[in-house]
Write the structure tokens for this entry.
Amino acid sequence: MKCKDFGGPLLRGGAWSFLALGLAVCFGPTRAGEPDDPLAEYREMFGDDNPAELWEVRGESLWQAARAEGKSLADTCDLGLGVGKTRAAYVKLPRYFEDTGRVQDLESRLLTCMTRLGADGDALVKQRFGDGDKKSDLEGLVAYLVEQSRGETIDVSLDHPEERKAYELGKAAFFYRAGTHDFSCSTCHDAPGKRIRLQELPHLATPQGAREAYTTWPAYRVSQGEFRTVEWRIGDCFRQQRLPELVYGSPVAVGLTLFLAHTANGGQMAAPGLKR
């Protein structure tokens, strides 16, 4: 069993079944040197190099590229710290944005900014995850913008009522038991020392466990030769557990991301990471 995507407004069909196993395989610790790290030798060979840098370079070009009326995302997109400001923006996401009246993660916020500059939102979502020569603009932008927060401390707020509501939705999703096996995220991730197929599972409901996982995503995935985002990670977990498709940028996806990010507060971002 392998893991893949994280997705977006509501779960189609309303089922939650195998959420626990999906997140289990997705968020296992992968830091170099750990005994359960299958990529330790690969990382040692490459040192500080990470193929995600190719996505970062492309993402920077996309961020600066002139679009409608000669304006770029750098000229118009506010990620929460002011228009065009990227340094340490990611470690404060998801957050509430007054201009949309919604809590947004990085990917849903980018969709807002890009469509305001005339991009076709449906086309962007259709190509939200790259495959071979068909690269995703969203993944490239995420790689660049996450790198802008490397080394920064996660500081996700719940000050706004909508942020608290999104957090509670994500927390409820994390503990909600459903499906043929009556699983929840917490089935695998609310106790220490659990494993799946010899892979150690992080205790995601605790700050230490959440930091182990959240600080190294998004990441370049060696087995696919692609850079993958957090929404990709969650969504593919859902798919492999036979859950209904998680819609990209949905309240459920953003809520789960906010729950994990806030739990990981105080951790230092090391993403983009390198995964198996």
User: Anything to note?
Assistant: Residues 37 and 140 are 26 Å apart (CA to CA). Residues 1-35 have pLDDT under 50 and may be disordered. The chain has one domain: 19-275. The domain at 19-275 is CATH 1.10.760.10 (Cytochrome Bc1 Complex; Chain D, domain 2).
